[in-house]
Design brief:
This protein has 79 residues and is α+β, with helices and mostly antiparallel strands. It is built from one helix and three strands. Helix content is 32%, strand content 20%.
């Protein structure tokens, strides 16, 4: 890997995930797209209202996209 071109960036907006489970000092989270990861509980903070709303919007879009694909694959939508 060529680190001479590496660029440091902040996570803005930060990753937002819903807590799935807590084990000891680790928390398992999931994004709206289904990506799961663990993080130290001490590195987390509660989501803001705007972050929670955006998460819910992304979940709804994902459900709608999956439903549209399901209909299309079932022959319900002409291509």
């Amino acid at each position: 890997m060529d680190e001479t071109t590496a660029v440091s960036t902040s996570h803005d907006p930060p990753w937002v995930g819903r807590v799935q489970q807590t084990v000891a000092d680790r928390v398992q989270l999931i994004t709206p797209t289904g990506y799961e990861w663990t993080a130290a509980a001490s590195s987390l903070r509660p989501a803001t209202g705007a972050e929670r709303a955006e998460y819910d919007v992304q979940v709804k879009r994902g459900r709608q996209a999956r439903e549209a694909l399901r209909r299309q694959l079932a022959g319900g939508v002409a291509s």
